[in-house]
Design goal:
Structural class: mainly beta
CATH class: Mainly Beta
CATH architecture: Sandwich
Order of helices and strands: EEEEEEEHEEEEEEEEEHH
Strand content: 35-45%
Number of domains: 1
CATH superfamily: Jelly Rolls
Shape: globular
Largest sheet: 6 strands, antiparallel
Number of helices: 3
Helix content: under 10%
């Protein structure tokens, strides 16, 4: 699905690539993507001679924009160009939302709608996250998550709303043609676990 982002009148509005910027140094912006529960988040960056500073997470800012998220676990990954991690999702009984931030390099963050009663079931949306831009992605429970590394290396930080439980985490093959995600790399590097994960059609059959 094509990316469309609305920045709630705070930093910018981006519809179909057109930008209209108005800056408010005290606020964060929240983009509403094609999939419900998939948001792009940007806090303002403050630069001076020492470097820069920005807020990474604010419970009150999230709550005021209708996002109920309190992190209980944080993970860190480092990957090289061409790596695809995912598509990962948790069991319905183990609700887990995520905030993804790229603190080194550039990635394409992907959310896949796996909510069986959703009008966009099986659709996906993408956000480019970079350390330079300083943006993050919020992925709510019910969406599968993956990312692809575009830079030579990328370091990614995950904030999770529940602790990781390997018995309740599942996956889809990120190269499944039925999902038609359209990864940029021609020679993707993926784990054996992700490569052997179920297809979307197998997952859909299990939901019936």
């Amino acid at each position: 699905m094509e990316l469309q982002t609305w920045f709630l009148g705070i930093l910018q509005i981006n519809l179909g690539g057109k930008e209209n910027c108005s800056v408010n140094d005290r606020e964060a912006s929240y983009g509403l993507e094609d999939l419900k529960g998939f948001h792009q988040i940007e806090f303002p960056i403050f630069d001076d001679m020492r470097g820069w500073f920005r807020t990474w997470y604010s419970e009150s800012a999230f709550a005021s924009n209708g996002i109920d998220f309190i992190p209980v676990q944080s993970n860190l990954s480092k990957s090289k160009r061409g790596v695809i991690r995912g598509i990962h999702f948790s069991d319905e009984s183990h609700e887990q939302s995520k905030i993804i931030t790229c603190v080194q390099g550039t990635i394409v963050d992907v959310a896949v709608d796996l909510r069986r009663n959703s009008e966009t079931f099986g659709d996906h949306s993408k956000i480019v996250l970079s350390a330079e831009k300083g943006n993050s992605a919020y992925i709510s429970h019910g969406l599968g998550h993956a990312f692809e590394v575009l830079s030579e290396e990328a370091t990614v930080v995950y904030l999770l709303s529940s602790e990781w439980n390997p018995k309740l985490e599942f996956g889809l093959n990120p190269l499944d043609g039925d999902l038609n995600i359209g990864w940029q790399t021609r020679q993707p590097i993926i784990s054996s676990k992700d490569a052997s994960a179920q297809s979307f059609n197998e997952f859909r059959a299990s939901c019936e």
